[in-house]
Amino acid sequence: MTLNKKMVCILFLILMVFVTTVTYVCSRNIVSKNLIEDGNIYMNKSQYKEAIAIYREALKYNKNNNTENMLKLAETMERSKTAYNRGIINYKKKNYLEAINCFQMVFNKDTIRYENSQNKLNECVNKYVEENMEQAQKYINDLNFKEAEKYLNNILKIDSDNEKAIRLKKKIIS
């Protein structure tokens, strides 16, 4: 084989490797971009589990901060949605203390659920305080101050500034 033919073969091989590499990189970027767009669609539909799976898949093709941030946001929003839904379930079951804990975990950037969760949180606090105040009052009327104090302490754990609970507790302790 002549020198020219060898040079042409070598150049052809180099060109093929270059074209293959560029095609591979571009196709990975296109796949990643399409996956990210799909993930964004799921985010807009509040389908966070699906978005999480897609963003994770996109990171396999192209790791970048934007995709990692979108994955973290989707995970946070999923936790927020789950906390809100658990809060609603506990609220309906009148498990107000558990509902309070759930509503407190709703992400403040969760524009869909945050405001509602804060309203429900306030309702739960009021109902929890009301229930415990009724029980405390019942035990005070029965002169069972030790039990009454437990219910007043429950109130003060949730609402440390509750004047009525503070006043009643001082009254039964003295």
UniProtKB/TrEMBL annotation:
<dbReference type="InterPro" id="IPR019734">
    <property type="entry name" value="TPR_rpt"/>
</dbReference>
<dbReference type="Pfam" id="PF13181">
    <property type="entry name" value="TPR_8"/>
</dbReference>
<dbReference type="InterPro" id="IPR011990">
    <property type="entry name" value="TPR-like_helical_dom_sf"/>
</dbReference>
<feature type="repeat" description="TPR">
    <location>
        <begin position="32"/>
        <end position="65"/>
    </location>
</feature>
<protein>
    <submittedName>
        <fullName>Uncharacterized protein</fullName>
    </submittedName>
</protein>
<keyword id="KW-0802">TPR repeat</keyword>
